[in-house]
UniProtKB/TrEMBL annotation:
CDD domains, sorted: ABC_Mj1267_LivG_branched (cd03219)
Xref: PROSITE patterns: ABC_TRANSPORTER_2 (PS50893)
Gene3D superfamilies the UniProt entry points to: P-loop containing nucleotide triphosphate hydrolases (3.40.50.300)
Any one Gene Ontology molecular-function term assigned to this protein's record: ATP binding
SUPFAM superfamilies: P-loop containing nucleoside triphosphate hydrolases
Protein's organism: Micromonospora vinacea
The protein's name: Branched-chain amino acid transport system ATP-binding protein
Keywords, alphabetical: ATP-binding, Nucleotide-binding, Transport
Span of domain ABC transporter: 5-245
Entries under InterPro entries matching the protein: AAA+_ATPase (IPR003593), ABC_AA/LPS_Transport (IPR051120), ABC_transporter-like_ATP-bd (IPR003439), P-loop_NTPase (IPR027417)
Pfam families in UniProt: ABC_tran
Length: 247
């Protein structure tokens, strides 16, 4: 089966440890796909492989039908794969608007490319609606370093969207957020346009079930199960894996 992203037989070893051992993962256009599993299962390693920061010893990664295995993270971002990190990566001294403008600049096509400042103006046009989409209009002029942790997370997602991604890789987006911030984040992620597919790594299963339509469970670097949230919720194999050890 082919999809927007198709990873086949991916293996990563650290010395004698198999962090990933022949993992397959297929994500379709607009899909909400979650990756779960006990600590050390290989979830972050797989995100790193898809984002391009870890090169697997074996296996292929195709995106939109093309082999992207040799591409660096920045080249993958240009093709439409964007990663949100556990610690929000924003420019603290720039305002929220300026952060989104900086993120948008490489991707905007000005209507009059010869016009001085045309690219910047096009990026500024994009920033307002994206900040609005992420509930940040009221803090658009606030330096990112002064924003609450949850707002910085929302800003990082606005910045990722400015790159017009087709696939967002979300690494534990709820980590460190308060209950209120988590609730807001879930609403914002649920409202993301279907033009963007999402791969979510998350320990909180309530969030996983609220946000995903497909769940893949890793354990010891291998795929233990894959299915709908209902299938995974009721799977005895998955229950056992979690009983054996999860955060
Ligand atoms: N750079 C590295 N060097 C050596 N071992 C590593 C490295 N990165 C990951 N590992 C090991 O690979 C295995 C998988 O790690 P990974 O971080 O992908 O798991 P995870 O499922 O994301 O875990 P967690 O839920 O705890 O974040 C673990 O045993 C980990 O210790």
């Amino acid at each position: 089966m082919t999809g927007l992203l198709d990873a086949q037989e991916v293996s990563v070893r650290y010395g004698s440890l198999a962090a990933l051992d022949g993992v397959n993962l297929c994500i379709h256009d607009g899909q909400r796909h979650a990756l779960i599993g006990p600590n050390g299962a290989g979830k972050t390693t797989l995100l790193n492989v898809l984002g391009g920061s870890t090169k697997p010893q074996r296996g292929t990664v195709r995106f939109d039908g093309r082999d992207i295995g040799r591409l660096a993270p920045a080249a993958r971002a240009r093709r439409g794969i964007n990663r949100i990190h556990q610690r929000p990566a924003v420019f603290p001294t720039l305002t929220a608007t300026e952060n989104v403008v900086v993120a948008a600049l490489p991707r905007v096509i000005p209507r009059r490319p010869w016009w001085p400042g045309g690219r910047r103006r096009a990026a500024q046009h994009l920033a307002g609606p994206l900040l609005d989409q992420m509930g940040l209009t009221a803090v658009a002029a606030v330096p990112a370093g002064h924003l609450a942790h949850g707002q910085r997370r929302q800003l990082e997602i606005a910045m990722a969207l400015a790159g017009r991604p087709r696939l967002l890789l979300l690494d534990e987006p709820a980590a460190g957020l308060s209950a209120i911030e988590v609730g807001r984040l879930v609403e914002l992620l649920q409202a993301l346009p279907r033009a963007v597919a999402v791969l979510l790594v998350e320990h909180r299963l309530d969030l996983v079930y609220a946000l995903s339509d497909t769940v893949t469970v890793l354990r010891d670097g291998q795929t233990l199960a894959a299915g709908t949230p209902d299938e995974i919720r009721t799977s005895p194999l998955v229950r056992q894996a979690y009983a054996d050890g999860v955060a």
